[in-house]
Amino acid sequence: LWIKYVEYPWLYAFNFYSAMPVIVFIMDSANANGNALLKLLPELDGKATCLVGNTLADFEKSPQLADVDVISLAVFAGGQPSVIADLWPKCPKVRWIHSLAAGVDTLCPVIMALPRGPETPVTNAKGAFSRSLAEYSLAAMLHFNKQIPKLQSNRAAKNWDRFI
Description:
The chain is α/β, with parallel strands linked by helices. The protein has helices at 9-16, 32-40, 56-60, 82-87, 108-112, 130-145, 148-157, and strands at 22-26, 49-53, 70-73, 96-99, 122-123. A five-stranded parallel β-sheet has the order 2-1-3-4-5. Strand 3, helix 4 and strand 4 (96-99) form a beta-alpha-beta unit. It starts with 8 loop residues before the first helix and ends in a 7-residue tail after the last helix. The model is unreliable at 1-8 (pLDDT under 50).
């Protein structure tokens, strides 16, 4: 299987390269999630050079495009997987592709169609959302089991009947 899962992919990237890596983040910074992600990127100052965009035109002006080591796709932030295909010929040094989401279903068809694509390691955020998803699932089960909507409407109506 050509998809390789790495427990801590960012540490892998920073230890793998002797020079500071150049990372392309494919996302829509006008999107609420993209804007939130954009605010986190200064934490990488001094550790990586970050290029951000969601179209080929967003990246073409960068003189560092040919030195890109990592492509990171944020589909949840409006990132378009097709941009990877557009960037690919201009980024001959890409050694790794990372999906900031848990799934790679939109990413795999694009990568498989590219030269060097199937040989390029792909990682994802598998497990990153496990705890929050478990908490949400438990909260949802309790919400419906304990009839929270009925409790809320009874409280608003000042109706104190026993129904549980």
